C-alpha cells in the first residue's frame, strides 16, 4: 500500500478532480461509491444516517449521464430506503447481493451460510447483552457488530464474543471496519469482485467499455482499490488524515465527495 499525505480541503478537491478528469477523458466512467463515510458522514447509530439533499441531487444527475453503483456493507433494502433508486446499481453486503436495471444476483454460498449467521447472531447477542453500546445488525447475508458507543474497557469482551462465534461456525470470517466487526460467509468475494462483476455485466448490456471510478473510506474498500489499481480503474480514498492505502487519490470528507461529483459532471458532460 501507499500512504497519501496531503489533505487540503477544497484545494485538494479541485486537484483531485483535475487529475481524475484527465484519467477519464476518452472513456465512459462507471462511478462506484461507498455510502457510510463516503456519501454520508458516519454516525453513532447507523440507522440515523441520511443522504443530504446535495448528495442526492448529484447522484441523480450522475446516473442520467453514466452508470452509477452504490457499493456498501449495508443490505440493498437498507440502501434503497436512503438513496434515490432510479437507474442506480447496488452492491450490498459487501457485494454478496447485487441489483440494478435488468440485473439481480445473490451469492449462492452466502445464502447457504444464512443459518450459521443466525447462530452467530444469537451467540454474540447472548455474550454481549450486558455490555453497553453494542449494536448487532442482521443484514441477511452478513452481520455487523458495532461498538462505537461501547466503553473502551469493554471492547475486548466484544471482540472475544465475535471471535468465539467465528470459531464455533467454522464457515464465517471476521473483518474489521470503523468501530465495527463484520461477519461474512467464508467465500472468495468482496467489493472489488462486485465492481468487476457489475462492470462486465453493464458492458455486455450496453456494448460500452467502462472505466470504473471507486470512492470509499473504509478498510473494506481497499479490496476495490487493489482491483482497480491493476490498470482497471481509478481509486479515491475518503479520509481526513493520512493512512496506508491502495488508493491513488484522496478526498477529506463526504462534503468534498459531493463537490467532486458536481465538478465531475461539469467537466465531463
TrEMBL record:
Cofactor dependence: Mg(2+)
E.C. number: 3.1.3.12
Keywords, ordered alphabetically: Hydrolase, Magnesium, Metal-binding
Catalysed reactions, semicolon-separated: alpha,alpha-trehalose 6-phosphate + H2O = alpha,alpha-trehalose + phosphate
A GO BP entry: trehalose biosynthetic process
A Pfam family that the UniProt record links to this protein: Trehalose_PPase
Involved pathway(s): Glycan biosynthesis; trehalose biosynthesis
GO molecular function, one term: trehalose-phosphatase activity
Its job: Removes the phosphate from trehalose 6-phosphate to produce free trehalose.
Record protein name field: Trehalose 6-phosphate phosphatase
Organism, scientific name: Alkalilimnicola ehrlichii
Amino acid at each position: 500500500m501507499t500512504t497519501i499525505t496531503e489533505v487540503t480541503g477544497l484545494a485538494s478537491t479541485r486537484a483531485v478532480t483535475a487529475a481524475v478528469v484527465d484519467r477519464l477523458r476518452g472513456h465512459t466512467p462507471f462511478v462506484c461509491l461507498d455510502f457510510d463515510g463516503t456519501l454520508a458522514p458516519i454516525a453513532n447509530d447507523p440507522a440515523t444516517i441520511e443522504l443530504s439533499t446535495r448528495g442526492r441531487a448529484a447522484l441523480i444527475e450522475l446516473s442520467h449521464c453514466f452508470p452509477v453503483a452504490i457499493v456498501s456493507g449495508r443490505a440493498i433494502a437498507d440502501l434503497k430506503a436512503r438513496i434515490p433508486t432510479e437507474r442506480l446499481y447496488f452492491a450490498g453486503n459487501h457485494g454478496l447481493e447485487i441489483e440494478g436495471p435488468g440485473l439481480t444476483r445473490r451469492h449462492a454460498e452466502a445464502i447457504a451460510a444464512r443459518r450459521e449467521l443466525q447462530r452467530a447472531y444469537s451467540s454474540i447477542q447472548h455474550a454481549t447483552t450486558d455490555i453497553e453500546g453494542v449494536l448487532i445488525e442482521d443484514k441477511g447475508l452478513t452481520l455487523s457488530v458495532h461498538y462505537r458507543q461501547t466503553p473502551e474497557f469493554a471492547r475486548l469482551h466484544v471482540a472475544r464474543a465475535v471471535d468465539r462465534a467465528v470459531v464455533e461456525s467454522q464457515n464465517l470470517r471476521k473483518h474489521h471496519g470503523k468501530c465495527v466487526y463484520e461477519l461474512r460467509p467464508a467465500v472468495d468475494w468482496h467489493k472489488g469482485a462486485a465492481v468487476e462483476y457489475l462492470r462486465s455485466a453493464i458492458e455486455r448490456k450496453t456494448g460500452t467499455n467502462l472505466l470504473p471510478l471507486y470512492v470509499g473510506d473504509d478498510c473494506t474498500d481497499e479490496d476495490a482499490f487493489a482491483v482497480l489499481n491493476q490498470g482497471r480503474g481509478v481509486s479515491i480514498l475518503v479520509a481526513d488524515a493520512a493512512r496506508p492505502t491502495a488508493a491513488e487519490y484522496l478526498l477529506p470528507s463526504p462534503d468534498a465527495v459531493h463537490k467532486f461529483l458536481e465538478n465531475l459532471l461539469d467537466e465531463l458532460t
